[in-house]
């Protein structure tokens, strides 16, 4: 046992497949040498039952070495996959971190833009309210001006009717003055009464000194009024 531990090492120590094959080959060569010495000293009958068992053990050791070699190759493949997956995980984690940082930046930018839009909307609402108040004020002013215009138009129509009536009265008065013959001067002591003048239908408040026709409708002056 001590010789096997010296050859194969202690239990649990890792060995490469090539080293295991070399150890098995060396062990087989050493055992065959010892068997030859035993056969030369004591005859072949001494090792007749031991030789098949040694061959089986050596073959088992060789198969175990092959299995260890296959497991080592699979382990290397697993280690390579592990390293590859670990690198991919590190890259994905770094990309996720960058994406989270970018998302935070975009979220801050969107928040700032939303605040700016909110302030602009508030300003637009205030301006719209002020414009609506001005529009209502202008509408009230327009309505008041329309009322004043209507009242002035009515007053102007009344004044036009009054003016036309006064001009008509003036023309009638002037025509009556032109058609009225001048009366003879009475002699002293005569009892001839003065002829009756026609009654003039004029307003009571009519002032003849201020009543003048328009310049474009003035006619030739008639005879002077009798004293």
Quick summary:
InterPro entries: JIP3/JIP4 (IPR039911), RH1 (IPR034743). The protein is mainly alpha-helical. It has helices at residues 2-8, 17-42, 50-179.
Estimate the global geometry from the Cα principal axes. rod-shaped
Structural class comes to mainly alpha
Approximately how much beta-strand content do the residues carry? under 5%
- Write down the overall mean pLDDT: 76
Oligomeric description of these chains? single chain
Q: Taking Cα atoms only, what radius of gyration do you get, to the nearest Å? A: 71 Å
Distance between the termini: 181 Å
- Count every beta strand, where a strand is a DSSP E run of 2 or more residues: 0
Number of helices: 3
Characterize the largest beta sheet: strand count, sense, and whether it forms a barrel: none
Report helical residue fraction. over 70%
Pattern of helices and strands:
HHH
**What low-confidence regions span 5 or more consecutive residues with pLDDT below 50?**
1-12, 183-227
Pfam family, one: RH1
Coiled coil: 61-176
GO cellular component, one term: cytoplasm
Organism: Pelusios castaneus (West African mud turtle)
Describe this structure in words.
- By secondary structure, the protein is mainly alpha-helical.
- The chain has three helices and no strands.
- The N and C termini lie far apart (181 Å).
- Residues 61-176 form a coiled coil.
